[in-house]
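thread from #wetlab-drylab

HS: before we spend reagent money on co-crystallization trials with iron/sulfur cluster, can we at least see a predicted complex? here's what I'd submit
DV: go for it
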Amino acid sequence: MENVKISSVCGLCGGCKVAINSALDSLKSNGKATLFKEVVHNAAVNKMLESKGVKIKNDLSDLSSEDFVILRAHGETPATYKYLNEHNIKFKDCSCVNVQKIHECVANFSKTHTIILVGKYGKFSGKMHPEIEGTIGWCAHPPVLIEDEADLDKLKAIKRKKLYLIFQTTFNSDLADKLIEQISEIAEQNSCSLEINKSICLAQREINKSSRTLALNCDLMIVIGSNHSSNSVELYKALQPITKTIFFEDVSSWQSELKKHDVVLNKNIKIGITAGASVMKEELEILANQIRAEINKL
Ligand code: SF4
């Protein structure tokens, strides 16, 4: 293996690309584009869009009929669509199809079942992931929110005998499997029926798989991403047990990051580079070339 290798599967996922391209297309055809909240948790992508003239607005009340709004991939609550329609604000819905399917499922099943929604509801970060926020909005009754095994105690209070288990698209697949096992046992003990929808995104699973394979042959893995990006954080956690792994957002700070983690480059070092579904592959290529150039000087 060469010194520095980028994971064979990485880069922006289909859902994020649709939202970004829609914003750029709207700039061309309408002369304007306003993203309702950041399209991905990635400063470089958001800066690129703003530099081209895309506005980013974070509150519904900041939007007006002057805007052409792009709704990002994470999905919105019904209240967002209501507001846009009531205020005659034109918009393009770029909610990812995978997230839309989850909305349909919870809207239907919540009429008859208790929804168990597994994802980053803010237990550790204090901030609910926007995808969870959007999905809750489509439930006819409040779902039971689970983020880790300790939350399973909440299931004791469930009254309905029909349960429907569903996941945030970027949730950790291994933890999801553990939770499925435990929730199935609890359902059986309480004579509840349980429908399981392991709605974890394929793009996410593929990135994890190829990054893990790469990590097996590397002395160091570098994961690029934001602390707010669920899929990047999960990827970092998945690689840590395999090899030394470091995680940072700003590609240009790579030298200080290596120093901070006591990584010294040498002619034989094997470094793998990867990122979650919210990072452009171009960023990883820039980083890989800079590290290769530094190794070549040794
Ligand atoms: S990670 Fe998957 S579910 Fe999420 S936006 Fe991308 S393609 Fe859609």
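DV: The chain has a mean pLDDT of 94.
HS: ok that's useful, forwarding to the group
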